[in-house]
Amino acid sequence: MMKGSPSFILIDDNFINGYIAEKILKGMGLKDSITSFMDANKALEYIRTNRNEDMQKTILLVDLQMPMMSGFSFLEVFEQLPSGVRNHYAVYIVTSSINQEDQRQAYKYPSVKRFLSKPLTASIVQEIIDETYS
Fold this sequence. Notes:
By secondary structure, this protein is of the alpha/beta class. It has a single domain (about 5-134), classed as Response regulator (Rossmann fold, 3-Layer(aba) Sandwich). It has six helices and five strands, in the order E-H-E-H-E-H-H-E-H-E-H. It has helices at about 15-25, 40-50, 70-80, 85, 100-105, 120-134, and strands at about 5-10, 35, 60, 90-95, 110-115. Strands 2-1-3-4-5 form a five-stranded parallel beta sheet. Helix 1 links the parallel strand 1 (about 5-10) and strand 2. The mean pLDDT is about 90.
């Protein structure tokens, strides 16, 4: 059950893709609940240091193809975090990849809820919100 507005962390090294995702979220009235990172390492550091045991679940939107740390490398580290941290996040892969192997590999990580194609749409975001907070 959700208290307040849903929270999002966007992890995408492509400025345009991040901008589009933010624009969709803001258009849905979610402007105050978005934290964006172009570097997955910085997102992990944020997740490690901004723990709040009472916080509601945060939706992570993670790109796969990033130069400094790929989405798969991010997932490897994320899965090693304590369950008390991981349980506060719902991970959604958002990628332009149509490679079936990428999809199979993504679903090997228990935290991954869905594998979504870019660009995001308001209806997909609403589905994510409904899944995460139902």
